[in-house]
Task: inverse folding
């Protein structure tokens, strides 16, 4: 194999990147859609939401709304950056985790209505944490690998 073949192989995105980035993109796109439809008060979207949950959301302080937006928005941006193989994806996912933490702190401190006390709701919260931390860890590993490859290439060229 020559250097051109090796360079082409190194530049090709691995399948797991497309899987992680695509799944993250879908997950956070749904989160952004949920945030948008909830905050613009789309009647058709909110028709299935229990009244106590809507009242609870209406009571969010501004910082909790910002935390929610940060969580889903930075997650979406991170997924796009990850698919673009850009190293800043890890930073976007870190902000997403911080936003998620802010929302959880509010929920634990304020309590939640009965409709949010179900096992299904808390399972989704656990899944949100798993996805957020997994994407952050994955983006950090990909960034480190990219740096390692760049360092190896630099060493090979300079010798």
Result:
């Amino acid at each position: 194999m020559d250097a051109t073949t090796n360079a082409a192989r190194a530049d090709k995105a691995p399948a797991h990147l497309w899987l992680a980035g695509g799944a993250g993109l879908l997950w956070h796109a749904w989160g952004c859609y949920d945030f948008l439809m909830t905050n613009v008060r789309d009647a058709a979207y909110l028709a299935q939401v229990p009244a106590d949950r809507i009242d609870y959301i209406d009571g969010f302080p501004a910082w909790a709304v910002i935390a929610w937006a940060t969580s889903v928005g930075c997650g979406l941006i991170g997924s796009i950056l990850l698919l673009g193989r850009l190293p800043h994806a890890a930073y976007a996912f870190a902000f997403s985790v911080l936003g998620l933490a802010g929302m959880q702190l509010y929920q634990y401190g304020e309590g939640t209505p009965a409709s949010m006390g179900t096992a299904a709701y808390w399972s989704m919260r656990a899944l949100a944490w798993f996805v957020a931390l997994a994407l952050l860890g994955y983006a950090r590993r990909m960034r480190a690998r990219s740096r390692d490859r760049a360092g190896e290439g630099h060493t090979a060229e300079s010798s």
